[in-house]
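Molecular record:
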Amino acid sequence: MKILLEEAMSEKKIQVTLGNYKGVEVKKAEIIITEEEVKAELERARQYAVTTQDKDGAAELGDEAVIDFVGYIDGEAFAGGDGTDFPLKLGSNTFIPGFEDQLVGAKKDDNVDVVVTFPEDYHAAEFAGKEATFKVTVKGVRSSFLPELSDEVVQKISQCKTVAEFEEFVRKSIHDFKQNQADMEKENKVLEQIVEASEIEVPQEFIDERKEQLKNNLLAQLRNAGNTFEQYLQYNGLTEELFEEYAAKDALSMLKGQAVLQEIAKAEGFSYTDEDVDQTIAAMAMSYQMPAEQLREMMGERGVAMVAEDILSKQALEFIVKEAVEA
């Protein structure tokens, strides 16, 4: 295994001359939890206690209308404009502006023609600015009841017994989240300073390769979400050229950080065992819900070597953070 790692590392011709990596100064994070944050989380938790019941009367804002709908533009049904048994909370602004307002007052079994205009900046450019008519059938109306937070409610939505205990749990959860964010920010700042203090030469072909990997990962995520690259660019206000520029910067930053961590691991004599690699792959396989051996075969020798490389990088990152000085 160690031979594989050395071969994998020797293939990379990123030249690194380390700057100072011990005793890097960073500003100490101050974890502040406001009462407003606690109240907001308590209110969000209270939503889990909402109960609904069928309503015979007209739908009001805040009610849930269960609808079937088909959308038409210029008299033709369009792709993605239909749905069945869709639970739409009126006033949630889930649909196009004006859609939900036109269902206020509707009752079960009503048929409603909802006429709306897609916003000019709508993410699907082919619909932007166009008027559409949705044929809507209201299959049911439900009203919601939101109880006040009480010991009884707390016991239903959590493992706590009292409101006071739940509030402390929420406060701790907010603290832990902020502490985790602060820890990650500290890691980034420490590594950024070491990268800046070091001399690093990254061949262009490695930047191009990593940039392509980043783009392919994004494209896969977009496909899984049912979106396109063009929609992503439009939503984020990017041109393809600007995206390529940002991706290249991200690729270079990642490569520099990884190269510095590997060089620190080498300087400090960090090591790993085959058992470390096996445990890491086993954890990865569990998250992917597949046998570890199957994942190892899919990864190949290079992939397994990268796992070992990542283990050393994590050791180096933990080391430089521990050595950092908070001011």
